[in-house]
Design a protein that fits this description.
Layout (H helix, E strand, L loop, with lengths): L1 H28 L3 E3 L2 E2 L4 H12 L1 H17 L6 H26 L10 H27 L4 H32 L5 H6 L1
Antiparallel strand pairs: 1-2
Length: 190
Protein backbone atom coordinates (compact mmCIF):
# COMPACT_ATOMS: atom_id res chain seq x y z
CA UNK A 1 0.00 0.00 0.00
CA UNK A 2 2.86 2.38 0.84
CA UNK A 3 4.43 1.82 -2.59
CA UNK A 4 1.12 2.55 -4.34
CA UNK A 5 0.70 5.79 -2.39
CA UNK A 6 4.26 6.88 -3.26
CA UNK A 7 3.63 6.01 -6.93
CA UNK A 8 0.45 8.13 -6.97
CA UNK A 9 2.30 10.97 -5.24
CA UNK A 10 4.99 10.87 -7.95
CA UNK A 11 2.31 10.92 -10.66
CA UNK A 12 0.66 13.90 -8.96
CA UNK A 13 3.92 15.82 -8.47
CA UNK A 14 4.76 15.32 -12.13
CA UNK A 15 1.28 16.35 -13.32
CA UNK A 16 1.12 19.51 -11.21
CA UNK A 17 4.74 20.49 -11.92
CA UNK A 18 4.31 20.12 -15.66
CA UNK A 19 1.04 22.07 -15.75
CA UNK A 20 2.50 24.83 -13.56
CA UNK A 21 5.66 25.16 -15.64
CA UNK A 22 3.63 25.12 -18.86
CA UNK A 23 1.54 28.03 -17.52
CA UNK A 24 4.68 29.86 -16.35
CA UNK A 25 6.42 29.24 -19.69
CA UNK A 26 3.46 30.70 -21.56
CA UNK A 27 3.56 33.82 -19.38
CA UNK A 28 7.31 34.33 -19.50
CA UNK A 29 8.22 33.26 -23.02
CA UNK A 30 5.13 33.90 -25.17
CA UNK A 31 7.15 36.44 -27.17
CA UNK A 32 9.64 33.70 -28.06
CA UNK A 33 6.97 31.51 -29.64
CA UNK A 34 7.85 30.63 -33.22
CA UNK A 35 4.36 29.28 -33.92
CA UNK A 36 1.48 27.89 -31.85
CA UNK A 37 2.99 25.53 -29.28
CA UNK A 38 6.55 25.86 -30.63
CA UNK A 39 8.83 27.94 -28.43
CA UNK A 40 12.53 28.81 -28.38
CA UNK A 41 12.52 28.16 -24.60
CA UNK A 42 10.32 25.36 -23.26
CA UNK A 43 10.94 24.92 -19.51
CA UNK A 44 8.33 22.10 -19.11
CA UNK A 45 10.60 19.86 -21.21
CA UNK A 46 12.91 19.87 -18.20
CA UNK A 47 10.15 18.47 -16.00
CA UNK A 48 9.55 15.80 -18.60
CA UNK A 49 13.08 14.48 -18.24
CA UNK A 50 13.51 15.23 -14.53
CA UNK A 51 10.31 13.44 -13.54
CA UNK A 52 11.21 10.35 -15.56
CA UNK A 53 14.75 10.34 -14.17
CA UNK A 54 13.49 10.66 -10.59
CA UNK A 55 10.19 8.78 -10.73
CA UNK A 56 10.48 6.40 -13.69
CA UNK A 57 7.13 5.01 -14.82
CA UNK A 58 5.19 7.28 -12.45
CA UNK A 59 6.81 10.26 -14.18
CA UNK A 60 5.73 8.89 -17.56
CA UNK A 61 2.16 8.46 -16.27
CA UNK A 62 2.04 12.00 -14.86
CA UNK A 63 3.34 13.43 -18.13
CA UNK A 64 0.80 11.46 -20.13
CA UNK A 65 -2.06 12.77 -17.96
CA UNK A 66 -0.74 16.34 -18.22
CA UNK A 67 -0.38 16.00 -22.00
CA UNK A 68 -3.89 14.64 -22.38
CA UNK A 69 -5.34 17.42 -20.25
CA UNK A 70 -3.50 20.15 -22.18
CA UNK A 71 -4.14 18.63 -25.61
CA UNK A 72 -7.88 18.26 -25.06
CA UNK A 73 -8.58 21.34 -22.91
CA UNK A 74 -5.94 23.95 -23.70
CA UNK A 75 -4.54 23.47 -27.20
CA UNK A 76 -6.47 23.01 -30.42
CA UNK A 77 -5.78 19.95 -32.55
CA UNK A 78 -7.54 18.92 -35.72
CA UNK A 79 -8.21 15.40 -34.49
CA UNK A 80 -8.43 13.37 -31.32
CA UNK A 81 -5.73 11.08 -32.71
CA UNK A 82 -3.34 14.04 -32.99
CA UNK A 83 -4.09 15.07 -29.39
CA UNK A 84 -3.57 11.50 -28.09
CA UNK A 85 -0.43 10.90 -30.14
CA UNK A 86 1.08 14.22 -29.05
CA UNK A 87 0.50 13.35 -25.39
CA UNK A 88 2.06 9.91 -25.85
CA UNK A 89 5.07 11.38 -27.71
CA UNK A 90 5.54 14.03 -25.01
CA UNK A 91 5.64 11.37 -22.28
CA UNK A 92 7.34 8.48 -24.09
CA UNK A 93 10.39 10.30 -25.47
CA UNK A 94 11.66 11.57 -22.09
CA UNK A 95 10.90 8.22 -20.48
CA UNK A 96 13.00 6.43 -23.12
CA UNK A 97 15.77 9.04 -22.80
CA UNK A 98 15.82 8.52 -19.02
CA UNK A 99 16.01 4.74 -19.48
CA UNK A 100 18.94 5.17 -21.87
CA UNK A 101 20.68 7.56 -19.43
CA UNK A 102 20.16 5.19 -16.50
CA UNK A 103 21.62 2.33 -18.52
CA UNK A 104 24.53 4.18 -20.13
CA UNK A 105 25.54 6.20 -17.09
CA UNK A 106 24.49 3.89 -14.26
CA UNK A 107 22.51 6.73 -12.66
CA UNK A 108 21.48 6.31 -9.06
CA UNK A 109 18.66 7.90 -7.03
CA UNK A 110 18.65 11.69 -6.61
CA UNK A 111 20.57 12.12 -9.88
CA UNK A 112 23.80 10.75 -8.41
CA UNK A 113 26.24 10.14 -11.21
CA UNK A 114 24.75 12.85 -13.44
CA UNK A 115 27.91 14.87 -14.08
CA UNK A 116 27.77 18.12 -16.08
CA UNK A 117 28.87 16.27 -19.23
CA UNK A 118 26.28 13.52 -18.71
CA UNK A 119 23.64 16.14 -17.92
CA UNK A 120 24.41 17.89 -21.21
CA UNK A 121 24.30 14.63 -23.18
CA UNK A 122 21.07 13.42 -21.54
CA UNK A 123 19.45 16.83 -21.96
CA UNK A 124 20.42 16.98 -25.63
CA UNK A 125 19.23 13.41 -26.21
CA UNK A 126 15.79 14.14 -24.77
CA UNK A 127 15.77 17.58 -26.40
CA UNK A 128 16.06 15.87 -29.78
CA UNK A 129 13.94 12.77 -29.12
CA UNK A 130 10.77 14.53 -27.97
CA UNK A 131 10.46 16.95 -30.94
CA UNK A 132 11.39 14.16 -33.38
CA UNK A 133 8.65 11.93 -31.90
CA UNK A 134 6.14 14.79 -32.18
CA UNK A 135 7.06 15.63 -35.77
CA UNK A 136 7.22 11.99 -36.83
CA UNK A 137 3.59 11.69 -35.81
CA UNK A 138 2.68 14.84 -37.72
CA UNK A 139 4.52 13.44 -40.75
CA UNK A 140 2.56 10.16 -40.48
CA UNK A 141 -0.70 12.10 -40.37
CA UNK A 142 -0.02 14.77 -42.98
CA UNK A 143 2.97 13.59 -45.01
CA UNK A 144 4.82 16.86 -44.33
CA UNK A 145 7.32 18.09 -41.77
CA UNK A 146 7.77 21.70 -40.70
CA UNK A 147 11.57 21.66 -40.46
CA UNK A 148 11.74 25.13 -38.92
CA UNK A 149 9.30 24.17 -36.15
CA UNK A 150 11.26 20.95 -35.56
CA UNK A 151 14.53 22.88 -35.18
CA UNK A 152 12.94 25.42 -32.83
CA UNK A 153 11.41 22.63 -30.72
CA UNK A 154 14.79 20.92 -30.43
CA UNK A 155 16.44 24.15 -29.27
CA UNK A 156 13.57 25.07 -26.94
CA UNK A 157 13.32 21.63 -25.36
CA UNK A 158 17.08 21.32 -24.90
CA UNK A 159 17.34 24.78 -23.30
CA UNK A 160 14.40 24.03 -20.99
CA UNK A 161 15.83 20.66 -20.02
CA UNK A 162 19.26 22.05 -19.23
CA UNK A 163 17.79 24.88 -17.12
CA UNK A 164 15.59 22.54 -15.06
CA UNK A 165 18.14 19.72 -14.65
CA UNK A 166 20.91 22.12 -13.66
CA UNK A 167 18.64 23.81 -11.11
CA UNK A 168 17.39 20.47 -9.74
CA UNK A 169 20.90 19.06 -9.44
CA UNK A 170 21.98 22.23 -7.60
CA UNK A 171 19.01 22.18 -5.22
CA UNK A 172 19.53 18.50 -4.41
CA UNK A 173 23.25 19.08 -3.75
CA UNK A 174 22.48 22.13 -1.58
CA UNK A 175 19.90 20.24 0.49
CA UNK A 176 22.22 17.29 0.99
CA UNK A 177 25.14 19.57 1.90
CA UNK A 178 23.11 21.57 4.46
CA UNK A 179 21.25 18.61 5.87
CA UNK A 180 23.25 15.43 5.20
CA UNK A 181 21.03 13.37 7.49
CA UNK A 182 17.82 14.54 5.82
CA UNK A 183 15.48 11.90 4.57
CA UNK A 184 13.28 14.29 2.56
CA UNK A 185 14.84 13.66 -0.83
CA UNK A 186 15.27 9.94 -0.16
CA UNK A 187 11.59 9.59 0.64
CA UNK A 188 10.44 11.23 -2.60
CA UNK A 189 13.01 9.91 -5.04
CA UNK A 190 13.69 6.32 -4.08
Amino acid sequence: MKAAARHLAHVGITLVSFLFLNWLNELAFIRLEQSAGVNWVFIPAGIRLLSTLLFGLAGFEGLLLAGLYLNFHHFSFGSDFRAWSGAVAGALAPYLASLFARHWFDLRPRLKGLTPRRLLFTGALCGVMSPVFHHALVWVLSGTVDWTALAVMIVGDTVGILIVLTAAKGVIALIERRHPATQVMRRWTS
